[in-house]
Specification:
Elements (H helix, E strand, L loop, with lengths): L1 H32 L9 H13 L2 E2 H8 L3 H13 L3 E6 L2 E9 L1 H25 L1 H26 L4
Antiparallel strand pairs: 1-3, 2-3
Helix pairs in contact: 1-5, 3-4, 3-6
């Protein structure tokens, strides 16, 4: 049974990598076709932006926990995003010793645009695989989302 789980995990991992590459390629092709400048942002930086967007504001410690990186790594990532104008840093009103990170208005617009391209790419893929498999995918990913969201909330709260 363990071997089956490992093979299933391998298939999920490889499929996730293919899916990510598919979406990135489609997005970059769309940007080139429309003469839009390519954004020099890494997948981990995009992940950090998603975390910040979801939480509205985060401390470096919370971002590190949510992104599963060290606090110095999260701080360096925030420094780079700050240089790019994607985030702002400000003192936490509840604790002046702590800094919170927020998205800038510019980054919110960029993230929404990227998200629309990603959703369009996925919608195209769903048309290709058909409604039956799309429903199954939604069920499985819905379950995975619930389990992982709970783990993330626990990690951010420091219970993990």
């Amino acid at each position: 049974m363990r071997q089956d789980s490992v093979e299933q995990a391998r298939l999920l991992f490889e499929t996730s990598e293919l899916l990510r590459d598919f979406v990135v390629r489609k997005h970059m092709a769309h940007m080139r076709a429309n003469g839009e400048p390519e954004i020099d942002i890494t997948v981990p930086q995009m992940h950090a932006l998603h975390i910040i967007r979801t939480q509205k504001k985060v401390s470096i410690k919370e971002l590190a926990a949510a992104a599963n990186v060290s606090a110095p790594s999260a701080s360096a990532m925030v420094d780079r995003l700050l240089e790019m104008g994607m985030v702002s840093r400000e003192p936490n009103p509840a604790d002046r010793r702590e800094v919170v990170v927020r998205l800038t208005d510019e980054s919110k617009a960029i993230i929404m645009e990227i998200e629309q391209h990603v959703l369009g790419s996925l919608a195209d893929l769903f048309v290709e695989i058909g409604p039956e498999y799309t429903r199954l995918w939604q069920q499985v990913y819905g379950k995975i989302h619930g389990v992982l969201s709970e783990k993330l909330r626990s990690r951010i709260a420091g219970n993990d």
